[in-house]
Specification:
Elements (H helix, E strand, L loop, with lengths): L2 E11 L1 H4 L6 H6 L14 E6 L4 E6 L9 H7 L1 E9 L16 E3 L2 E8 L2 H4 L11 H14 L4 H15 L4 E7 L4 E5 L5 E4 L3 E4 L10 E2 L4 E6 L2 E6 L2
Helix pairs in contact: 5-6
The structure holds glutamine (GLN).
Enzyme class: hydrolase
InterPro entries: EgtC, EgtC-like, EgtC_Actinobacteria, Gamma-glu_amide_hydrolase, GATase_2_dom, Ntn_hydrolases_N
EC number: 3.5.1.118
Length: about 230
């Protein structure tokens, strides 16, 4: 299970998800505190942020601690909407940039923590950029968003369909279009921290009070107007 995190709120740097907090994604890449599947997240990492309506993305297959350019980039990449992930590849999945979150399509960025049998998601999309299960899941979500369907409904539909095809699927998703954020808790931990914006992360980035667990099998929606959590049944 990888680890991912996102921010929506006043502009801040990617370092606020990675290296500023004591247990940011850099630390979580080698010493996660709540990871149930896998021990380290050394199979690559990715960032996405918005500099205008289209996202900018950076993906690597090296461990995040092994990219000497990462700290400089994370310090200057600033946005009101940020997403980042460190990867522990599921057995049998390729290690390549195209298998690394965040996946992107038009204005959308998506990260998946978990695993799903590819047979359960392949019927949901025409094609994917990688053979990785997460790439297929992303393709299924993007195809529906491209049709103009609303984000919350798309995520609920894709998660239900994937879970129906694979009862063991773990489907924690983070999706953003730049002005709002959605996250699914399905099979692994998910936390939020409300401040002058909202932080969402697989596990708390620090030990400040105020981190709240999102119940399993639910959908979190965050916009500048607030945050809601609803069950996916
Ligand atoms: N299944 C995805 C992959 O192989 C995500 C892995 C994870 O969450 N650890 O990359």
């Amino acid at each position: 299970m990888c680890r991912h995190a996102a921010w929506l709120g006043p502009e801040r740097s990617l370092a606020s998800l990675i290296s500023d907090p004591e247990h940011g994604l850099l630390r979580q890449s080698y010493a996660p505190r709540m990871q149930k599947y896998g021990t380290v997240n050394a199979d690559g990492f990715g960032f996405g942020w918005y500099d205008g309506p289209r996202p900018v993305r950076y993906r690597r297959t090296v461990p995040i601690w092994g990219d000497a350019n990462m700290p400089g980039l994370a310090a200057v990449a600033r946005s009101s909407c940020l997403i980042a992930a460190v990867r522990s590849a599921t057995a049998g999945m390729p290690i390549e940039e195209s298998a690394t979150a965040p996946f992107a399509d038009g204005p959308w960025l998506l990260s998946h923590n978990g695993r799903v049998r590819r047979e359960a998601v392949r019927p949901l999309a025409a094609d994917a950029e990688s053979a990785c299960d997460s790439a297929w899941l992303a393709a299924a979500v993007f195809a529906r968003l491209r049709d103009g369907l609303p984000l919350a409904g798309v995520l609920a539909e894709v998660v239900r369909a994937a879970a129906e095809g694979d009862g063991e699927a773990r489907l924690n998703l983070l999706v953003t279009g730049g002005s709002h954020l959605a996250a699914v808790a399905w099979g692994d931990t998910l936390f939020t921290h409300l401040e002058r914006g909202v932080l969402v992360a697989s596990e708390p980035l620090d030990d400040r009070p105020g981190w709240r667990a999102v119940p399993d099998r639910s959908l979190l929606l965050a916009s500048p107007d607030g945050v809601s959590v609803t069950p996916i049944d």
